[in-house]
Amino acid sequence: MAVYALTGFSLVSLLSFGYLSWDWMKPSLVADVATDPMEKPLPPTFTRPPHIIFILTDDQGYHDIGYHGSDIQTPTLDRLAAEGVKLENYYIQPICTPSRSQLITGRYQIHTGLQHSIIRPRQPNCLPLDQVTLPQKLQEAGYSTHMVGKWHLGFYKKECLPTRRGFDTFLGSLTGNVDYYTYDNCDGPGVCGYDLHEGEDVAWDQSGKYSTFLYAQRVSKILASHSPKEPIFIYVAFQAVHTPLQSPKEYIYRYRSMGNVARRKYAAMVTCMDEAVKNITWALKKYGYYDNSVIVFSTDNGGQTFSGGSNWPLRGRKGTYWEGGVRGIGFVHSPLIKRKRRTSWALVHITDWYPTLVSLARGNLSNVQGLDGYDVWPAISEGKESPRTEILHNIDPLYNHAKYGSLEYGFGIWNTAVQASIRVGEWKLLTGDPGYSDWIPPQTLTNFPGSWWNLERLTDGLRKSMWLFNITADPYERYDLSEQRPDVVRTLLMRLVHYNRTAIPVRYPAENPRAHPDFNGGAWGPWASEDDGEEWEGSREPLKSRNKKKKCKICKLRSFFRKLNTRLMSNRI
Questions:
Q1: For the Sulfatase N-terminal domain, which residue ranges apply (predicted)?
Q2: Of 63, 68, 96, 111, which is the active-site residue?
């Protein structure tokens, strides 16, 4: 009772400050042009497969776009969304690699073995090589395919690189985060290397160019050199607005009145990215692609509140399974949409883009088995009901088990110590440790007063291992109904059991010292030869080699690299 009273008081206080002035049911602050329900729009003429531009931003918070009431200026994104279809029931994953893997494969991460954490630079791991990727399917349909930006799906072998996974060209970084100017990335003290690649080569000559500008310029160059008569797919995975917080000074100056320094830099990066999207859109029109194009915009996970991001009024942040971690910004802009200028509440997940875009491209999905995504184009373009009724957010057996979880607490159906989350219809269930469960208002002040959200987390969250919410009625996840609706809890637990039976072993191998950039000319890149077998198979630990002689050589090689790495580290210190 004390917790609810405190929470209620805090909400009233925030209302007095205007923090809850944004209407959830009317999220757009840009007026939507109403469509006459009696008007029958003329269908677009699909004389040719459409050009597809997929834009993915990194760590952009749910609140960090103009039409969600943000203090950050995003005029281009606001206009594109207002003229297209805003997806306000759109879900992604809470961290980088899982979202990207599900976009590229159309499969939940439990079906690719990537259900735990991210792929780290020194891990001998990548998107499973037996997966047929989205760009590969588009290539089959006659598309020219290009990727610009952040890969983060593994690179320990050349077979893992974007140009081996369906992209004709690639300019970008292979790891999770790099300096926006120097493209250096450190994976621990002294383990640093350069990470900007052109195709399969290191792009040393591009150092010093701000990545957001560089990537937008590359997209324009691709469009200028290609014929609009031939279909093209461009995957633009901006590094922005992931840390480090770096932006050209002229963009920071616009937000000089912001007291929160991290928020000021972050806002500058978002606006800079917005202008990059403007330049891409302009290039589509200039070179004759626009009238037959589909632009998809998506974030990859929730915003990191420690680094200036905001998911207000949602609960949680990047890395959590609360709505603030998994509900994404998404919209589609295209002259080919039949019912434009509206907001869609159709349930959409990032896995849905695979079958949706392949179908738009007139590709063949009959030979692709086991997709978890659905073709949601009719829901987006025509306003029809979404074929999706549930989402498995994830099941991660390796994540730290919740202290108060047990099989008994899960009615003998599910061990609630295991981190998992699922949505079925309007209901959402979380088990285990879902992650930091706060509600953080927009960080416009230098030091926001009060920590009422932490009090609820400390008195409630740490002693629980299962939550149930009616997301339709309670999108902020304030009212846990797990005790009031055990019938619903049981139903959703059974769905978790169903999905868990289809999961493949987790791929999360130990780091390999051979990955050190010092052994690769100072740059991050593939280090395993094509003859090297995979060192993992469903566990954290490397598998024992069946070939004792080969195993001995590998062990000696590893020992040598460890000693050499230790000497290098000691010399640097």
A1: 50-361
A2: 96
